[in-house]
Fold this sequence. Notes:
Layout: H1 2-17, E1 18-20, H2 31-34, E2 39-46, H3 47-54, H4 62-71, E3 76-83, H5 92-99, E4 107-115, E5 120-129, E6 132-142, E7 145-152, E8 154-155, H6 157-163
Antiparallel strand pairs: 1-8, 2-3, 3-7, 4-5, 5-6, 6-7
Amino acid sequence: MRLFRNVALIAVVIAALAATLWGQQFKFNLDHLDGKASEKIDVSLDVNMLQFAAKFLNTKNPDEAQVKKIISGLEGIYIRSFEFKKEGAYSPSDLDQVRNQLKAPEWSRIFGIRNSDDHDNTEVWVRSAGGKVAGIAILSSNPRELTVANLVGNVDIDSLAALGGHFGLPKLDKKKK
């Protein structure tokens, strides 16, 4: 259940990041992880499914209205999540195979969060094309889980910042507390 909740949260985060569509779909090759995982989740939401989901958002609620506006420009959200029975079932080289698909000059890592207590790691990568942000990838890992979320589209960072603190999304604060 924790895995599903994490995937759902990542889906909301990605939906909150995108404002308008631009570019071609980029899908990760994650076949090397299929045989190692004890549980797999594959979410593929195309433009029709996202528009359908947006119909359930309440436009009278300012937060939901903003998310609905953001979702209206999306082509799709693609998430693959893997859960492993024991620590060490996937190796750092498995994660490196994912990172190797995020090659410069198109992709740039914009930030990472590492928690040494529970070994949770999150990386956010941005894809640029034609001088515009054309996609975003989020890699979230811990010793027993690995999730890769992919969004293709023109990312509006201001939308992300405006939604921080809502829907369980963390506030992006440059200051350390």
